[in-house]
User: Fold these one by one.
Assistant:
Number 1:
Amino acid sequence: MSTRALPAHPRITDDPEVCQAYAADVSGLSRTPEAVARPESEQEVSDILRLCSDRGMGVTPQGLRSSTTGASVPARGIALSLERMNRVLEIDPERQIAVAEPGVVTAEFKRRVGEAGLFFPPDPTSEEECTLGGNVACNASGSRTYRYGPTRDYVRALRVVMADGTAIDVRRIGANKNAAGYFGFQNPIDLWIGSEGTLGVVTQVELDLRPHPPGSFGALAFFSDWRQAIRFVMAADASRRRGELEPRCLEFFDRHALEIIRPEAGGLRIADGAGAAIFFEEEVAPEDAAGAMERWHRAIEAAGGLADETVIAQSQAEQSELRRLRHAVPSRMNERGASAVEKGGRRVSTDFAVPLVNLPVVMEDAYRIMEELFDGFTVAYGHVGNGHPHFNLLAEDRWVLEQAEVAARQMARRAIALGGTLAAEHGIGKLKVPFYRELYPDWLYSGMRALKQTLDPKGILSPGNLFP
Ligand SMILES: Cc1cc2nc3c(=O)[nH]c(=O)nc-3n(C[C@H](O)[C@H](O)[C@H](O)COP(=O)(O)OP(=O)(O)OC[C@H]3O[C@@H](n4cnc5c(N)ncnc54)[C@H](O)[C@@H]3O)c2cc1C
């Protein structure tokens, strides 16, 4: 406990039960904050930051704490929850934009814009349990990133409260030509997207929307093993480039992921003998759906898959069922990881991604690394259309945790060597800080530290995220 007096503000409480409730995220890390602030307006965020800045007190913004990397765990100081700033302020069908507060739950936002005939493509699997502010702070992705890109592509403007309490407006520069200096700084809005709460608190987001697709269907196609499934993904992507198939996502389930969803599948039949599956969706008008499904059937057959066993979801309800199953895999793994925390274990999840052309080789390497270095339960699933599978290693106790971390690092190193990244959507948080240092040459790393020092000279924002 700090000996400093807590800032006095009606939205700040140090009630131990409340503090405990904001201590942890999904990563398995936790630390009880000195106090919890739950502002209801930008002015209150500003006042609270000013008070904390005067005291040099750490402030960790929080959405719904679905971070898997410890990013929303308050390493020191207070937790600043944005959950009460949860209003959609404007939906403009004419300009196809919406303005919202940061605490709006992502799925709720999508439902609201859907009612206005519009579509917000980013779809993190956690969309029912995360916020727009958290999505911006992590540059969240989802299965539809394959077709539509990550959250960054939809952020037009932000309001941000800086470490000293000053509120600023940052707007994306719209010109499609720009030769004014260093590229990384030409559109400063990009600095906040993906900054994991280290450069300011997002208090308002203005987002680009798309017209609602004329219709869509989803499907789960089964394959004998993961290699066959990945060959299908490569073929489907090639077909997309030739204009023959139009997937908006290509998501992977390995054998163990299928085991996880089987008991939850209800009426949806998971093919016996399947060793892997690919979940895909296509946007198509109802009258063209039969033709599109026929094309997919032929593609699954050509890849050697169990084409006749494919589960097809046409109604909205059936499609939601398939997406629920997709969500069940990380969700159950998180639960199993959480129950290992007592013995010093947790779920270790990779978040690396490679250029799609290198997906088969990185998958081959990742499975080999897991087999050589890790003894526990593993599962692989995720956004393979983006070259972004998640390998999860369930470390039941602290001895196996070490093995799991070594294995996950080796996989990420391999991905980087293949032209990829260590963290494609979950960010660095606290868990990947040592690796972040390793990722960049000294000159680039010190440039990023200098930026942090300029915008947050007292180092109060999200201490422990990105930098030690
Ligand atoms: C089951 C499951 C599935 C997931 N699937 C995906 C997926 O498909 N794609 C994906 O991208 N992620 C996924 N995630 C990770 C997570 O949901 C995302 O990172 C999400 O964007 C976090 O949002 P949140 O509101 O929970 O933020 P939090 O976890 O509360 O915070 C995350 C980070 O954002 C910062 N932050 C939050 N709000 C603000 C704000 N207003 N201003 C400044 N900083 C802020 C925090 O300080 C922290 O650094 C998944 C997580 C789970 C548990």
Number 2:
Amino acid sequence: MTERMKNALADLKARQERGEYTLCPRCGKNTMRPDLYTNALSRSADIMVCGMCGLDEAKLAFMRAPMSLYQWAALQSEKAEGDFRNFTGQETWCVLKDQYKAKMFNLYRQYLGGENPEEIRFLAFESIPGLTQIWTEPYQMKFRCRDGSLIVRFKELSGGWEMEADLVDGK
Ligand SMILES: [Zn+2]
């Protein structure tokens, strides 16, 4: 579990205890009983989840296939504002290079450093607008634009890394 996730869970737990967060943090539904401690203590984190999720966790634990915390409803990223649907691929590429290059490289460095791919996905969607998909095998990002989809990749050069982009699915 990452620091960011630990903090998010601690915050949710405090809000649960104050009665401010009443949805189930795992499934996101209005399925929590009003008396917090009659719900189920999660097996994945120190926080209460609804009875259905408690049963589901028990079942998945038995199958040795627990659900990742990255799939919890309350832990989804808030997508960065904005997109490139009114931009051509060329314009999108210019904006990305001008304004988001440092962020994109930073994420790529974390990926090379062995950061959990699910954490990279979370941070990418939260910090880079218009991102429609990110893959880590191999590492590439996809942005929908007016005339197709822009695929951004990273390549190693002597002395560092460079980004390159291809416009695909163009009409
Ligand atoms: Zn639930």
